[in-house]
Amino acid sequence: MTIMTEPKKTASAVDEYSIVNARHPGRWISAAVIVFLGLLLLRSVVTNPNFGWSTVGMYIRDVSIVRGIGVTLQLTVICMAIGIVLGVVLAVMRIAANPVVRSAAYAYVSFFRGTPVLVQLLFWYNLAALYPSITFGIPGVDLDANAIITPMTAAILGLGLNQAAYMSEIVRAGILSVENGQSEAAGALGINRLQTMRRIVLPQAMRVIIPPTGNEAIGMLKATALVSVISVPELLYSAQIIYARTFETIPLLMVASLWYIVVTSILSVGQYYVERHYAKGGQRSLPATPWQQLKRFVRVHDPLALKGAKK
User: Where in the numbering of this chain does the ABC transmembrane type-1 domain appear (predicted)?
Assistant: First the structure.
């Protein structure tokens, strides 16, 4: 006799699960404390009449201030271009096989890194005291140093040549980060050293070079304030001219500071995305953007991929 049994009911083939992230109350408490202290500081700054916020609003878009921003950006671009180009040349010289070339590059880097940039600016500005006429050792050439070395020229030479010393070390570190086998393989294929450096080594070294170069660009923007001592009409000097006339020192310094913060913030955003672009070849997953980081911070549940789901 055959006994028929009813088949057992199976559970649903598809179950939806979720992972609940561990609670971290310490993070929220520390964040709340920081926000509270930040609000207290902001309230103190906003309500303090000594900052002269009405004066800040009056001069924030003043014509001379805007012109000063233009000069600041112009100096930043020109000096960084000089620093990057000359820095690459010096970096290649530092790793050259010729000991004389290596020594010359080392002496350049040592001199410009060993002396304050303000001293270098003053030196270039007063170059005519040492060389009233510039001949370059060429017969028939006699140039007036006072006419050539203007305040703007002195600022470009002082900042650009100083920046080249720092950029050379950054580029050299990037070149040394590339495996030596890359150069050896290029040499085995008959590629000369110049082409190897330009087409193989430097493109791979960009992942190491770009982040500190972005920091140097932001630092250069702020370093342009030093040229106010040689009367270059950049942002800080323009603010100084105004408060020397109105005696509103703090409000005008706040105007300059706010503009520096705005420009450096824009440069920081650009630096972030340039770094993200060059990180493609060295990382399996790109770093999260600020918006993605914020979403990850406030998210509580992480959905799991469903297993055995039928489409």
Answer: 69-271
Domain span at 112 = 63-282
Q: What is the pLDDT of residues 27-42, one digit of tens each?
A: 889 999 999 999 999 9
Tokens of 146: 């006072």
Residue 99's CATH number: 1.10.3720.10
Angstrom CA distances, 39 to 33, 34, 42, 45, stand at 10, 9, 5, 10
- Structural domains counted in the chain: 1
